[in-house]
Write a structure and sequence with these properties.
Blueprint (H helix, E strand, L loop, with lengths): L2 H30 L7 H19 L2 H25 L4 H19 L25 H6 L3 H19 L1 H11 L1 H6 L4 H27 L11 H11 L4 H23 L6 H5 L1 H14 L2 H7 L13
Helix pairs in contact: 1-6, 1-9, 1-10, 1-11, 2-3, 2-4, 2-9, 2-10, 3-4, 3-9, 6-7, 10-11, 10-13, 11-13
Subcellular location: Cell membrane
InterPro entries: ABC_transp_permease
Membrane topology: Multi-pass membrane protein
Length: about 300
């Protein structure tokens, strides 16, 4: 493999992994607080269409990215009101949020189908970006790629090196105990869910503004579900999200290269690879239930309400 092909493959993997990393980082924080939001796919789609629409109409990619985060957060707010305030079932509400998000995004984006938008600008640092091999990989990405790493690093610092992160994890592990010593369980979970929604919206924005800079109905193609699986794959540990996101990003890109290598594998089967890998990983992980019980937030998916 020559250098040009190697760089091209690595850049493709980074592009495929970034929306997964963004969405999974947000969902990790949400689940660490004890909230299970299965509506990641819907939030990503709304973020994708809102970010694209704002960018196209205003000409500002920055406004589009901010709008995408707000769109995802608004979807998470709907989920939070239903589950945290009205105590609706989190699993059923998350599934409903995905269905709602798919329909809403299709309706909002109907007039934008097929319209291109300028791709998010890439970083260019004289001399550094021009370095062979590593230049374009390390110093030639767009802002959301770098933000995905910053967000992951910030999440690690917040969860494991701050008092607020300790409180959030305590709420996820024992909301009754956290409430008993005076912590606002519902407010903390609202904040975590909104952060998760905003990150999912950014993941969607990356798809419509950078990965394929245009809007297409259902363009997430199941990535929201893969992001959910990544959190379990990582056993709720942030650093493992990075490994998982790039592993699945590599599998996603592999399907395109397999078809060009003449192996005679049906295109339909190759397109199934990321989803087959997701199922295989979840099956393997589920065989070690002790590790899941040890790392999963004890109150994940459980409603909290003040009694007495």
């Amino acid at each position: 493999m020559d250098n040009a092909v190697f760089v091209s493959v690595v850049l493709s993997v980074i592009s495929a992994a970034t929306p997964l990393l963004l969405a999974a980082t947000g969902e990790l924080v949400t689940e660490k607080s004890g909230v299970l939001n299965l509506g990641v796919e819907g939030m990503m789609l709304v973020g994708a269409v809102v970010g694209f629409a704002v960018t196209l109409t205003t000409g500002s990619a920055l406004l589009g990215v901010v709008a995408a985060a707000l769109g995802g957060a608004l979807m998470a707010l709907i989920f939070s009101v239903l589950t945290l305030t009205l105590l609706a079932n989190q699993v059923a509400t998350g599934l409903a949020l995905t269905i709602f998000g798919i329909g809403l995004a299709a309706m909002m984006g109907a007039s934008f189908v097929g319209q291109p938008v300028e791709k998010l600008p890439s970083l260019y640092i004289p001399l550094l970006t021009d370095l062979p091999i590593v230049g374009r990989i390390l110093f030639g990405q767009d802002g959301l790629v770098y933000f995905s790493f910053l967000a992951l690093g910030g999440t690690i610092w917040f969860l494991f090196h701050t008092h607020a992160g300790l409180v959030l994890r305590a709420v996820g592990d024992s909301h009754d105990a956290a409430h008993a010593i005076g912590y606002p369980v519902i407010a903390i979970r609202y904040g975590a869910a909104l952060f998760g929604g905003a990150m999912s919206g950014l993941g969607g924005a990356y798809l419509s503004l950078s990965y394929t800079p245009m809007w297409a109905e259902d363009m997430t193609a199941g990535r929201g579900w893969i992001a959910l699986a990544l959190v379990v794959f990582a056993t709720w540990r942030p650093l493992r999200l990075l490994l998982g996101a790039y592993l699945f990003g590599g599998i996603t890109i592999l399907q395109f290269h397999v078809q060009t290598m003449g192996f005679g594998i049906p295109a339909q089967f190759v397109s199934m690879l990321p989803y087959l890998a997701t199922i295989a990983v979840l099956v393997v992980i589920s065989t070690d239930r002790s590790k899941i019980r040890l790392n999963a937030p004890a109150c994940l998916g459980r409603s909290f309400h003040v009694t007495g």
